[in-house]
């Protein structure tokens, strides 16, 4: 193939290829993934076609295959040509043969395309936060271990399940014979993706194994928590190194320590939800981070009594006020108008907070500390503590009759709790 004679735009469109004038000699336009648009010379009719180039899987010799034409009734776009070429490459490697030996290969949706279509459908059916979580799982876990450009029917083969399982082993840390929460989530999401592909008849069989009898056992694990004698170490690091972090991040983390709010709810806290006169914070049930279920209990708000220490913290946050709407707002450009829900977790990770088992402690693990040590050390009532943590009553009877928020008892507990933390070194 000839070297490029001219510079081409970064994004090659179908219109650009159709209007490209043939030169005196053959010219190639690179499209990525070793795919080119070959423009033949003027004297050779100036025809244009897509040609892929790859090494033979075993001999390692370079070979070429024409994927399609640019012009005419059978002309295809660069995107379609690239998708077809990726499928050809996958099948050639799988069969360990020359790409020309495959014959005509039809266009198949890629894993990325199937995933994107599924997310469009789910957008109107699930919470935005859930959708973002699915997207995050794909971005950081699934697509780092599975080829998103692989045609979906690549997995509709004898070794399709094996490919998926190998990827899931990598996701759970390369440990065979065991499962963890991350692997369980990714397995479920992949199963949902291939179910959609199966319903669209792009594949015949879902390759994701979900039969419990065929899977290694999964032992649920709770977020690591601190015991009472470990809390001084946490507070000391917060007070010693907190100055190096944005004040909003530190104050939000301290609010979580005082109230056991979930990080997502604390980061999204709005000024209009705070009534300093009535000494109460009312967080709407629809707020992301409260773990309410759409259509079931999202109308149940979460109440946080304002103690003297909590009020002091909130007034301190006002001094650093960056938003008229949110209590904690980002200092720099962010994808959120409020503090990133992961900010408290990132702050704790940065401090290197670990429990006795050597496991990193994040904001959600503090809720376990709040509950356990609140009972053991503060001698709080379990029901009062659970209400403060935002747990809703379980069971039809409890849901029907338990309307009490026990706000005064919760306030008394929070006063005792913050007093105990201050004795351990917490500054407000």
Overview of the structural elements:
This protein folds into three domains: about 15-100, Integrase, DNA-binding domain (Double Stranded RNA Binding Domain), CATH 3.30.160.390; about 110-215, DNA polymerase, domain 1; about 230-425, Intergrase catalytic core (hpI Integrase, Chain A, Orthogonal Bundle). It has 15 helices and seven strands. It has helices spanning about 15-20, 80-95, 110-120, 130-140, 160-170, 180-200, 230-240, 245-260, 265, 310-320, 345-350, 365-375, 380-390, 395-400, 405-425, and strands at about 25-30, 35-40, 50-55, 60-70, 275, 280-285, 300-305. A hairpin with a 4-residue loop joins strand 5 (about 275) and strand 6 (about 280-285). The longest helix has 19 residues, at about 180-200.
Distinctive features:
428 residues, alpha+beta, Double Stranded RNA Binding Domain, DNA polymerase, domain 1, hpI Integrase, Chain A, 3 domains, four-stranded antiparallel β-sheet, three-stranded antiparallel β-sheet, 7 strands
Fold topology:
Blueprint: H1 14-19, E1 27-32, E2 35-39, E3 48-55, E4 62-69, H2 78-95, H3 111-122, H4 128-142, H5 160-171, H6 181-199, H7 231-241, H8 247-259, H9 263-267, E5 274-275, E6 280-283, E7 302-305, H10 308-319, H11 343-351, H12 363-376, H13 382-388, H14 396-401, H15 407-423
Antiparallel strand pairs: 1-2, 2-3, 3-4, 5-6, 6-7
> What number of structural domains do the residues give?
3
Mean pLDDT over all positions: 83
Oligomer: single chain
Can you give the helix content as a percent range? 40-55%
- The shape, in one word, is elongated
Q: Identify the CATH class of the largest domain.
A: Mainly Alpha
Strand order in the largest sheet: 1-2-3-4
Largest sheet: 4 strands, antiparallel
Order of helices and strands: HEEEEHHHHHHHHEEEHHHHHH
What is the CATH topology of the largest domain?
Answer: hpI Integrase, Chain A
Q: What percentage of the residues does DSSP assign to strands (E)?
A: 5-15%
CATH architecture grouping of the largest domain: Orthogonal Bundle
Low-confidence stretches: 395-402
Q: What structural category arises from helix and sheet content?
A: alpha+beta
| Helical stretch tally | 15
Q: C-alpha Rg, in Å? A: 29 Å
